[in-house]
Write a structure and sequence with these properties.
The complex is a heterodimer of chains A (308) and B (292).
Chain A lengths: L40 E9 L24 H24 L4 E5 L2 H5 L1 H8 L5 E3 L14 H19 L5 E2 L10 H7 L4 E2 L9 E3 L6 E3 L8 H7 L4 H22 L3 E7 L1 H4 L5 H12 L4 E3 L2 H11 L1
Chain B lengths: L26 E9 L22 H24 L5 E4 L3 H4 L1 H9 L3 E4 L13 H19 L5 E2 L10 H7 L4 E2 L9 E2 L9 E2 L8 H7 L4 H18 L5 E8 H4 L5 H12 L4 E3 L2 H12 L2
Parallel strand pairs in B: 1-2, 1-8, 1-9, 2-3, 4-5, 5-7
Antiparallel strand pairs in B: 6-7
The chains are: A alpha/beta (308), B alpha/beta (292).
Chain lengths: 308, 292
C-alpha cells in the first residue's frame, strides 16, 4: 500500500494562507479599532429569520436545524415555523427591553411566504441581511456557478424590493459557501458577510469584484450550536454568553482596542417559553456593562472601515 | 493487522518501582498546545476525508484558523501568567505559513515536537518510505526554524501505521504522545532498540475531545481538570504521576472558555510540590532514571 507521490507534495506551503482570499494576520498585531463613543465592545445580535422547506433536499448536507425524519417531517417543519410566529416576537421584546438592537438575517422566501412578517420587521428601523433564498438553498463546493448566481440574484432582488433597504450584508444558510460565493456576492452589491468565523474583528476579504468585509458571526456562541448541537442547558447558554462578554470586555480594556461580540440567535430555539428567560438573562447582563455598543452589522462595518 | 500492539510490557501501576520526580514533586505537569494548520483544499486521502462538507468547508476551516489569528496569543499570555512553558504539538508547515507564532514560542523557550506537516495530511495508506519522508521533513523543519532537535511525536490527526513508532525513533525521537495506556511514562519497544518512551498525553482532558466530542461545558471542563489533578496529586505521594493538558487555541481560547480554564490552571499551579515541565524533560528524566 502506498499513496500517490503527490500526497507528499505541498504546493501551498509558503508564508501566509494556503489561499488568496485574505491576508494572514494575528488580531493582536493589527492597529487597535476604536468604536464610536470609545466603546470597548461592539455587540451584534443577529436574529435568524428562516424558512425550512418541508421537501428538503439536504444536498450535500442537511442544513443545521433542518428536517430529520422521513418526509413529511411535520415536527421540525412546524417547530421552525414557531420561531416566525411566536419566538421572534419574544426575542425582539427581550432585545427591546434591554435596549439592544437586533439585525435580522432573513431568508428571502419569507417575503413571499409571510409578507406580514417582513412588513413587521420593516416597521422597525433595523437592518436586514440577506440569508439566501431559504435554508435548503445551500451554497457549497459542488454547486454550479450559474445556479448559485441565480439564487443570490433572486434572493437579493426579492429582499431589496420587499424591504426598500439596500441589503448590504449576507449570511449563507449553515454558514456554507462555494469557492465562488464571495465573488458572486461582491458582484451583486454585497459589502460584508458573516460566514467566515475565524476572527473576533472584521477583516478585508478579496474577491474578483473588490474587497468584501468578513464580519465574523461566532459559531461557538450560536444558540443552536450551544443548545442544539452541544446539548447544553439554557442556563449554561446564558452563562457562556455572559462569560464571553466579560472576557472580551476585559481584553478590549487591556489591549486598548475594540472587540466584537457577535451573537446569532434563532427565534425557533431561544424563543421557546422555557428558554426565553435565559436569553433575557444574557441580554440584561450585556446591556448592563459599561463600554457596550449595541449596533447593527452595517454600523459595525462602517465604524471598522473608518478606523482603518 | 496485529491483534496486540505489543510495544510495552504489562504492569500494574502499584507494583512498579516508584517514580521520584525532581525535588520530590508528586506530579510532572505539562501543557501541550497544538499549533496546527489545516489546509482548505488538501490532497485527498483514500481512508479519511479531511472535511465533512465539500471544499471549501468554510466553517471547518475558519474554526481552525481562529486559533492562529486570535487564540494563540490568548493562550500564550495565560501560560506566561502561570509560569507554564508549552510543549507544542506542531503542524510543522506552520513554520512556513505563520513564522510569527513560531518566533513567539521560541522566545519563550517552549518545546516544539512534531505533529506531522499538516493536520489534513494523514498517515493512512503511506508506505514506510513515504511515512519516513514525512516524519523526517517535519523533524528537519523544526530544526531549521527553531534550532531544536525534535524529541516527541504526536501523529498528524492521530493517524498511524504499524511503523510510526519505529520510524520516529529512527528519526531521532525519544518519546511518543500517541499512547494512552498509563498515568506514568513507559518504555516502548522500537525495532532499532533505541531508548524510547511513551509520555502520557491525554485524550480525556484534551480540550477538543472534551468540547467537540464529549460536548462538555466550559466550566465543567475546568472542574474535570481540577478533579484529575487532585487525584493524581494524591496518588503521586507514593509514586510520581504525569498530567498533561493538550490544548487547541481554536477551542479553549474562545471568550466563553478561557476564564474557566484559567481557574483550573490557577488551581494546579498553586501547588508547590509539582514539576511544571515539558514533554521532552519528562522523557529525558524517565530515560535517565528508569530505563535500564
Amino acid at each position: 500500500m502506498s499513496l500517490e507521490p503527490s500526497y507528499l507534495h505541498y504546493p501551498r506551503r509558503r508564508y501566509g494562507m494556503d489561499h488568496a482570499r485574505y491576508e494572514w494576520s494575528m488580531l493582536t498585531e493589527r492597529p487597535p479599532v476604536r468604536w464610536p463613543g470609545n466603546a470597548k465592545l461592539a455587540v451584534w445580535v443577529n436574529l435568524a429569520v428562516q424558512f425550512f422547506p418541508l421537501n428538503q433536499r439536504g444536498k450535500p448536507f442537511a442544513p443545521p436545524g433542518g428536517m430529520t425524519t422521513a418526509y413529511p417531517d411535520l415536527r421540525h417543519y412546524t417547530l421552525r415555523e414557531y420561531g416566525n410566529r411566536v419566538g421572534l416576537v419574544r426575542c425582539v421584546q427581550a432585545l427591546d427591553t434591554f435596549g439592544l438592537k437586533p439585525t435580522f438575517a432573513v431568508n428571502a422566501i419569507i417575503a413571499q411566504k409571510y409578507p406580514r412578517l417582513l412588513e413587521r420587521l420593516c416597521e422597525r428601523d433595523d437592518e436586514i441581511l440577506c440569508h439566501s433564498w431559504h435554508m435548503d438553498s445551500l451554497h457549497h463546493g459542488e454547486l454550479d456557478e450559474s445556479e448559485e448566481a441565480e439564487i443570490i440574484e433572486r434572493s437579493l432582488a426579492c429582499l431589496r424590493e420587499a424591504t426598500g433597504q439596500p441589503i448590504r450584508g449576507w449570511l449563507s444558510p449553515g454558514g456554507s459557501q462555494s469557492h465562488n460565493t464571495p465573488d458572486l456576492l461582491a458582484s451583486q452589491g454585497i459589502e460584508y458577510m458573516g460566514d467566515w468565523l475565524n476572527d473576533d474583528l472584521p477583516y478585508p476579504f478579496r474577491t474578483k469584484h473588490g474587497d468584501l468585509i468578513a464580519l465574523p458571526l461566532s459559531l461557538e456562541l450560536d444558540d443552536h450550536f450551544i443548545v442544539g448541537v452541544n446539548l447544553h442547558s439554557e442556563t449554561e447558554y446564558a452563562e457562556q454568553i455572559k462569560d464571553a462578554c466579560d472576557f472580551l470586555l476585559r481584553e478590549a480594556q487591556e489591549a486598548e482596542g475594540g472587540r466584537l461580540l457577535a451573537l446569532n440567535v434563532h427565534p425557533w430555539l431561544m424563543g421557546q417559553p422555557h428558554r426565553i428567560a435565559a436569553l433575557e438573562d444574557a441580554l440584561e447582563h450585556i446591556a448592563n456593562q459599561p463600554g457596550i455598543w449595541s449596533a447593527s452589522a452595517h454600523e459595525i462595518v462602517s465604524a471598522w472601515r473608518n478606523a482603518q | 493487522m496485529l491483534e496486540s500492539l505489543d510495544r510495552y510490557d504489562f504492569s500494574l501501576i502499584d507494583e512498579r518501582e516508584p517514580i521520584r520526580w525532581p525535588k520530590g514533586a508528586r506530579v510532572a505537569f505539562w501543557v501541550a498546545p497544538n499549533i496546527e494548520f489545516y489546509e482548505l483544499d488538501p490532497a485527498p486521502n483514500p481512508v479519511r476525508r479531511a472535511w465533512p462538507r465539500p471544499v471549501p468547508d468554510v466553517q471547518g476551516y475558519a474554526t481552525r484558523d481562529y486559533g492562529n489569528r486570535v487564540g494563540h496569543m490568548r493562550m500564550m499570555q495565560l501560560l506566561d501568567k502561570y509560569g507554564v512553558r508549552g510543549s507544542i504539538s506542531l503542524s510543522t508547515a506552520l513554520c512556513e505559513h505563520h513564522p510569527e507564532i513560531i518566533e513567539l514560542c521560541v522566545k519563550r523557550d517552549w518545546e516544539f515536537f512534531s505533529h506531522g506537516i499538516y493536520n489534513t495530511r494523514y498517515t493512512y495508506g503511506m508506505n514506510e518510505a513515504q511515512e519516513r519522508e514525512m516524519i523526517e521533513d517535519s523533524v528537519r523543519t523544526i530544526k531549521r526554524h527553531t534550532g531544536q532537535d525534535c524529541a516527541g511525536y504526536l501523529a498528524p490527526a492521530l493517524t498511524h501505521t504499524e511503523h510510526t513508532l519505529d520510524l520516529f525513533a529512527e528519526a531521532g525521537g525519544i518519546y511518543t504522545c500517541d499512547l494512552f495506556h498509563d498515568d506514568q511514562p513507559t518504555t516502548v519497544r522500537v525495532r532499532s532498540g533505541k531508548p524510547f518512551v511513551s509520555v502520557p498525553y491525554s485524550l480525556e482532558l484534551n480540550d477538543t475531545i472534551a468540547y467537540v466530542v464529549n460536548k462538555v461545558e466550559p466550566r465543567r471542563y475546568a472542574a474535570m481538570i481540577k478533579k484529575a489533578f487532585d487525584r493524581l496529586y494524591f496518588e503521586g505521594k507514593e509514586s510520581g504521576r504525569v498530567m498533561c493538558i493538550p490544548l487547541h487555541a481554536y477551542q479553549v481560547s474562545h471568550p466563553h472558555r478561557l476564564a474557566a480554564f484559567e481557574d483550573a490552571l490557577a488551581h494546579i499551579t498553586s501547588h508547590k510540590d509539582i514539576w511544571v515541565t515539558t514533554g521532552r524533560e519528562i522523557a529525558e528524566y524517565f530515560i535517565e532514571h528508569h530505563v535500564a
